[in-house]
Structures are given as structure tokens and as C-alpha cells.
Amino acid sequence: MAETYALRIEGLCKSFSDPVIKDLSLSIPKGQLYALLGPNGSGKTTTLRIVVGLLAADQGRIEIFGHDTRRDPTAAKAITAWLPDEPMIYDKLTPSEYLAFVAGLWRVEPARAAADAERLMRWLELWDHRNTRCEGFSRGMKQKVALAGALIHHPQLLVLDEPLTGLDANMARAVKDALRAQVEAGATVIITTHILEVAERLADRIGIISGGKLLAEGTQAELRALAGPEDMTLEDTFIRLTGKPDRRAAAQ
Amino acid sequence: MVESYQALDRSGDLDLLLSAPVAQRFVLGAKLSRIVVTVALSQAGIFLPILIPILILGHPQLWGAVALMSVIAVISSCLGLGASIAIARTFNPGVTRTVIQVVAAVSGGAVVIGTQVAQFFSDEGKSSGYLVFNAWFRDHQVGERGLSGLIVQAAFGNVFGAIMLVAAALSVFGLTSWGLQKSFLIGFQRAGMRVAGAREPRGGIRSLFSSSLNQSVLVKEVKLLQRDPALVFNLALRMIYMVPLMLMLFRKAGSAYILPMTGGFGVFLLTQLASNIATLTISGEDTPDLLRVAPTGTASIGKAKVIASLAMISPLMVVFLIGISLRSWLAALGVLIVAITGSAGAAYVQLRLEKPMQRKRFGRANARGSLIGALINLALSVVFCILAGWAVWELAKIG
User: Fold this and answer.
1) Which of A87, B319, B320, B390 has the fewest CB atoms within 10 Å around its CB?
2) Domain extent listing, chain B
């Protein structure tokens, strides 16, 4: 039977000095763009770092397309890409060399990887800079190189932590288009973001996490219905669910 | 020079300081003071533990030596800073850092190599390099007359000499501080605008791709090393420092021992080089998370890095093997086995002990972390050096 969920998290717990993730369970259907929202320190990044294998969970079970990340991490990693807010690139390599290295790590067949690298660099407008070392690039350019690296091995699950941080409007649009295109091509994309408008415009489903727990999850309409009156915005819903005080009222 | 580079380039606070409502001359004066104080503290750490007990126990006139040390710290810092700024103005901003490091390393290395060369050419190599220089100073009455005499007298408590030196140091400090305002800011502003060069790889981008993890890691490590000439130079310099030792040993050994010593020394050099390169490839990792999320496993990555380290030392290994094989091919085979085992062992020690960190932080932060690894690898190098020497000695008798 074909796997319905791209990601399934069950009873996830993680503590550092204090508990950060508390019994978190979440299922994300495949072929969707899922936005994980939450205030600072809510456990979004920690959750995603556990999903991609950068942190070990204290408790719980994670499956990526049916592959248990603890029992079969290699199979899970082979179909997953991770893009943190700080691009994972080598300043002294060119975009072409970086993509070649990433393709080698994922053992992508060279002819196919080279063709995909060219396609990705043209698509992300990196082609003219393909032989320029990344050290002179802007943050947005570096983020695009990292995105190309994440896509070179055709991941089925793309996990991005604050992918639009520090990008100008044009770059942000390019990244958003790239993510939507991945979903349309059949991949599943999970992003964390502080920008509610991004989640509103981009995501098929939204999860709201706070204090290491999933407070609510669903489509925008479902979330609004959960929070109260029909004219509520996602921001109102978010504030109500995460229990933050109404600062406008306080200011008045 | 190194401190100038650290204070002005690496501290990363100049944007904040220069945008603060404080006169630039104060900011740059404070930076120069930091350089002087760091240099003075380095000197003090070496000399004061010896000097102060002597001073207290009956040679109070040696206060002048403390003053002289301070003066030397000021003047040498100013000279180093001046040289760094001159380099920054002369060279492309993109290579300034490298040139400063290289010139600083050569200046430091020149003293060691100079004393060794002086020893090598002195009276059949029986005098130490220090004694050769000392004799030259004595013959030319350095420190007895003129300005050099005044400096020495100041060190022994001559108040007039000390005042003159302090005045000279303060003048140099003031002049350098003024020059820093005039010259440094232009270079600082230009440095942020550097553009990396671009060249199409031979065979197009398709030639860059490989499905082999080992090859991908090797290519990446070679490129990263190639593009950091300061690191390459530091590695080369460590090897160059060993050459005088080799010369000294070879001088004292009879002709029958030359081949075993060459084999032993070659293995020592290769093991040390493998250790240094392994430290770089294993610890100098800018994106450890990328490697951890890849479906390759940390063991495979570590193995690939060890292989890359061995591949990078292989040209030097070939040179040594060709040299030895001219006398005995069997001895060369023995050296090959010992060299590969020793180098792989050294790289493996680094793999077990090192932790990844960004390459740009490599120079400073790694010094403490790798101390245990460096000591283990030094011991390993000595053991394999002896083993190689013995193997060559025995095998050369056979064929």
C-alpha cells in the first residue's frame, strides 16, 4: 500500500536543560506545503532538526514516507532535504562545485546530476555565477545555492527552517515560487516561518506549535473555525491559540 | 603582523565601532593599543618570570629591562602594523590576508632558519646558530657603542637612555596611529568590495560530478585547500622547519646511515603532513550539518576524509619513494607500507579526536582542541620514523 503521509511524528519528546518538545504528534500528508508556525522558542526548529537527523529525540517515533528515522536513517535521509535559515554552503566553492559535492554525497548518477545542476542554476538565476566562489554572494544568492543543493537529489520531503529570512522581495518571491513548484511536482515541503502572511499565501496546511506542543493543525479555514468568529485572520488565530496578550489593547 | 590582522580584520567589531559617535582616531588608537598590549603581554609571559626574581633579589637596575621590553613591544607592534597596512595597500584586498600571514610566517621562520643555516655553515657545524650570531655582534661591537649601546645601557638602568627610548616609542606610536587613520580606512572600505574570480572548469560542469563519495570529498578538500594559500603555506612552513633538523642529523651520520635516515625522516614528514591535512579536512568543516543529513553515515564520511588526506600527501610520498628506490626498490616498498600505515594512523587519530569547526575560525580556536591529537601524532611519527629507518636498513641489504 502506498504511504499516505510524508511525515509522521508520534509522541516526540526532547529536553535540553528544560523540556522543549512535549509529546508532539503530527502527520503531514504527502504532496502538500505545510507551514509550522510558532512563537520564538516554541520548538519548531528543534522538531525539524530531529526529523532530519541532526538531533536525537528523547522519546517518540518519526517516519518519513514510512521509513523509521531511527531504525533506517539512511533510507529516510536519502529522500529528505534540509535547508536551515543559515545556508549550508562552502564559501570557497563555486555553485557548480557545491552542487557536484552534494550530488556526490547523495550518490546521484553524474550525468543526471550535471543536467539537473544546470537546470536548477538556470531556473534560480545562478547560471551566470556558476563559476564564481560563493564567498562574494549576497545572503539571498547563498540561499538559492543552498536551495539548488537541496533539490539536486530530487527529495520527496523538503524541510526548510525560515527559508525567507533576510531575503529581499524578489529573492523571497523566487524561493516561494520554487517551493510551490516542488509541491506541484509531487514533493512535500515543510517550512517554519515567523511571517504569517507567507503561511497564509503559501501553505496548504498549517500547524501551530507553542511550548513544544501542537496546539492546532489544519487548513486555514479549519484553523479559523477552531479559533472563533469567521472574520478572524490567521494572525488573530495565532495570537489566540498561542495565548499571547493583545498588545494593542495593552498599548491603548 | 598577526596581531594587527586579528585586531583589525578578524575581531569583526570595526563596523560597530566606526559607526559609533566616537572619533575615528580614538577607535583606531584603541585598536593599536590592543595590539601593543597583546604583544607586550606575550613578551612579559616569557621574560618577566625570569626577570622579576632577579630584579628583586639584588639587581634593581634591571627595571630598565622591563622598560626596554615595553618599548620593544610598542615599536615592533607599530612596525608590524605598518607592514600589514603597506601590504593591504599594495595587494588586491582579496589576497591581503594571505600575504600578511605569509610575510608574518616567513619573518618568524627566518629567525629559526637563519640560525640553522648559520650553524650549518659555521666551523663544521659545531657552533649553535645563536653562538654564531652572538660572535658576529661581539665582533662588530653591537651593544657597546652608539645607538645600540644606548639601548643596552637603558636595559641596565640608564635613566637617560630609558627616557630616550620611551620618547622614541611614543613618537612611533603617535606616528603609526596617525598613519593608521590615513591609510587603514581606505583599505578597510575596499576590502568589503572584493570579487572572487571565475573560470569555467575544463570539460564544463559535467566534469565536476562523480557518484563516488571518496572522489567527491577529495575534490572538495583539494579545492578548499588550494583556495586558502595561507593554510597551504603554513603547512609547508611546518615541513620547512624540519629541514634544518634533517641537515643536522645527516651531517652527523655516516654515509651508511643516509638511506635509512632518509626513509625514516620521509615517513616522519609524511606522517606529520598527513596529521596536519587530516586536522584540516576533518576539523575545518564549514557545513557539518550537511554531512550529517546526507544518507552516507558519519563513518563513510570520516573514511573518505582519511583517504583524501592520504591522497593529498601522495605526491610527496612518491618523491621520497623514487629517491629511495634508486638505491633499493625493496627498501622503497618497505617505506611505502610504513608511510601509508603511519599516515593513515595519524589521520585516524585526528578523526577520533577532532571536532568540526568553520575553517575561518580554524587558526585560532583549533590550537587548544588539537593539542592532544598533535602530541599523539608526534609520538606516532617518531615510532613510524624509527620503524621505517629500521625497515630500510634491513631491506636494503636484500635488494
Assistant:
1) B319
2) 2-191, 211-398
